[in-house]
Queue: 3 jobs
Job 1
Amino acid sequence: MEAADFFRVSECKGQKTIDGEQVPLVLAPSDDGAKSSGCEALVEALKANREWVEGKVVANSGVLLRGFDVRDAAEFNAVVEALGWPDIRYVGPAPRTHVHGRVWTANEGPLEEFIYYHHEMVLIKEFPGKVILFCEVPPPSGGETPFVPSFRVTERALEEFPETVEELDARGLRYTFTALSKNDTKSMRGRGWEDAFATSDKAEAERRARALGMDVEWLPGGGVRTVLGPRKLTRVFPGRKGRRMWFNTVVGMHGKELSSATLADGSEIPADFVRRCGEIIEEESIQFRWQKGDILILDNLATLHGRRPSLPPRRVLVATCK
């Protein structure tokens, strides 16, 4: 089945037009609803049009599939498999639980807290190319997943702080993050190192950390401090119009209780620069209200994403792909 026969371009409140493209691109069933509205039909259409779908994800930075009656983790997993992108295991501080196949819960930290904008696994050597989110239970209020076209942040930061941007890119960045031994689900960054590295053996954890491009420092009480760097402030990826992506976590980690972001030599990043970049990121954010069955495919090389505070219940599942 041709994509044009199955999908129609729709709209959602909150989307923006950036460089002539809808962000996100909303794809809904064609008007022949009996043939195209169910999950099984969606799976077959995605299998038949993988290159077309990936082209839309890259061109529009994100694609929202809406109205296909995807009901649960098993059906979402079938959609993920249909897209054909290889799996990549999540490594990071967010507490998560395996649900089905390639599907995990999204960050299980307290719903009342804001999860700051980030590229998934931005700091380690191998990061996802795509992040796929599925809304199983939409929240009664809040709980949006805002995302930001990263190149827009770089463009605006260069307009206001050209010398600082180029200096940080040239000198590189250093990040540290502290984790406990066991998971703390009361924190949105509460994943313990044993879960993160899938081992309770410190020597094996060190080996796995080095393979991911990080050093570790063991702390009294069983915790660990991970050290990463140097890292670039921006990155340019093939097929994305030469755009410089804001591929870092400076704003999210700078001066926080469990983390830090500095220049590679340990010197401080100007606080006014970090504050203003945070404002730019928020100003460029895009968000929509989740509906049950929504599937959002984000180009992880081109978008930061986060989570607004939410009233319960809210259940959003995730798959990360190469």
Job 2
Amino acid sequence: MEKVVAVIMVGGPTKGTRFRPLSFNTPKPLFPLAGQPMVHHPISACKRIPNLAQIFLIGFYEEREFTLYVSSISNELKIPVRYLKEDKPHGSAGGLYYFRNIIMEDNPSHIFLLNCDVCCSFPLTDMLEAHKRYSGMGTVLVIKVSAESASQFGELVADPITKELLHYTEKPETFVSDLINCGVYVFTPDIFTAIQEVSTHREDQANLRHLTSFETLQSPTRALPQDFVRLDQDILSPFAGKKQLYTYETMDFWEQIKTPGMSLKCSGLYLAQFRYTSPDLLAGGDGTKSASIVGDVYVHPSAKVHPTAKIGANVSISANVRVGAGVRLIGCIILDDVEVQENAVVINSIVGWKSSIGKWSRVQADGDYNAKLGITILGEAVIVEDEVVVINSIVLPNKTLNVSVQDEIIL
């Protein structure tokens, strides 16, 4: 029986600076979206792949930060999940190659590679079937986006009939195509040979330059270490048009989770998806014995929500949260151990761990997921006193607000 393994790239603490202040005390991959850690969504999608042997998380966070999560998710899904720590960044392809012996332990016929900060429906089984039909080295998940936004991503040209990847360019300055790379791939083990070729070629070039002149040593191409191999520029671009790489287009939702604003949007996308994949995770209530629920809402079993509260749409309430009488929550993520007191309102906001929102207070924002202050963020242990209004603002941890603020970053 052919076995499949999955590798999820989780990055490390040097990345994710745009995710502050939410990444101060929790690794970005463990930040909850729709009540589940960010990395949980690609992991549970991998679980649906037939003949899946193992899931690997590769990154350069300290191992202790993932130990608890990895053991609990392995037990829950009844599949081995392992965290592999890089000694330094090796690039998206280099990281895969660095752990090739561990990844190939089960002698898999196919290897999935996913980026953790991608939000989509992960059509992995369909992708694998298409990949087997193409019989190339790799298949890339792609999606059509607006021509204006395409330049923020890797743009590609594919044959409309055969789906072969013909041309790939990362964040081009001029428009190439409205088809972009989703950061989800499936490869045969031939990918390791391809990565090895890039490293060898780079070493040969370095030796050649070393023999010629001192000036060439100063050239920008020398900047990349031999074992740092990027999947996009070093593999996809040179192998395009060689009948090695193919594309599989998703017609479903897709977003990149680079900022807290996008995490709130993606939490809503995952909540909407739960309707079809995990309806048992969505809360219900008509305001009699439990709170009124509007649209897609997740409430952790340990949270206490007053029956007169009105929650939703797009709300995720984490563990040990207390929501008082008459509270209104719309489009927000409420993290562990938060208290929202009577008649407070929270709209388009993320409320950090152990924070408290006083009676009759409002914490809200315009809801522009792409703008810097488009959503309001309260860091850990922020106290908003009674009758205080916080609009379009970011508040760093351990602050007390006793006056109203708007369009501010409170350091």
Job 3
Amino acid sequence: MVDVLLQCQGFEASDFTGYINGGEYQQIMDCNSLLLEVEDETITTHNMIRDRYQMRFPELSSLVPQPLDYASVVKRISNTEDLSGVDLADILPPRTNLAVSVAASLTNSRPLPEDVLEATVAACDRLIALDSARDKLLQFLETRMGQIAPNLSAVVGSPVAAKLIGAAGGLEALANMPACNVQLLGARRNNLEGFSSATTQNRVGYLEQTQIVQTTPPCYTSRACRVLASKSTLAARLDFSGGDPSGNAGRKLREEIHNKIDKWQLLPPAKRVQPLPVPRSETKKRRGGRRLRKMKERYAVTEMRKLANRMQFGVPEETSLGDGLGFGYGMLGQAGCGKLCVSVAQSRLAAKLRA
């Protein structure tokens, strides 16, 4: 089926309409199956190109991980020794282009034989043709999304809905897929060539291309992707079961997503200053009884402490170090005997404890 698709590269997306209009939903699913075959063939061809070109430029596969970009670069470079005369600006971003040029000047490589080079370039042409065929299939599916998945198209848009169904392998597979996996459909591995990954967004696939995520502030993008993935899964299940062919449920789900994002951006309510409660004027009832009396006797101020806390007017206070230094004794030892005198008042609690 892939070879038949490659022969149809000269046709437009509208040329497939005559083939599909006479069929039913199964023919649309066959188109999704063809997309999966194209993906598998793309991976196989990319692995073959990488294994053959490893002899010429071993570092290129790590610098350019995407299959289409890798094939275009291999076809452009071929056996060229000096990359200063090779223009890769239309294929690679400036940062990756610089990394490829530096790696090519430092690598230890040897040119490919002519037969191996011809087979590698032919494989590059085939991979580019496969990618073009995949784009044509996706363009055709976009025109049919209103009939295949009206609710999913209302949530994420027709182009993204076609890509999600194609990447999942059909509407049934998308409906049975958990939301965390739907969020990763179409995710591409970013090669930063040693640069910082602090500002990069990983684990984001086709859902990043939706209008909802594009219009969301960057600080809420990850949360919006999670919510959008969960609502997309619900919409896909509705479409697969035929719950709402009109797409009203999908529009309601989209409105819920917008309301959530708007609510995230609202400022928190200002804190209200609450006045202190009015104190009670009546006296509190205190506990009485034998246990309270024992506790009061245990923690009561002793006579020694009372005398130490008192000072007699006109009489100098004795201190532990003399001359007013150290701890003061207050009225202790001021009875005329020259010693610390404490009146012995035995409490009933102390007598009971000694007994």
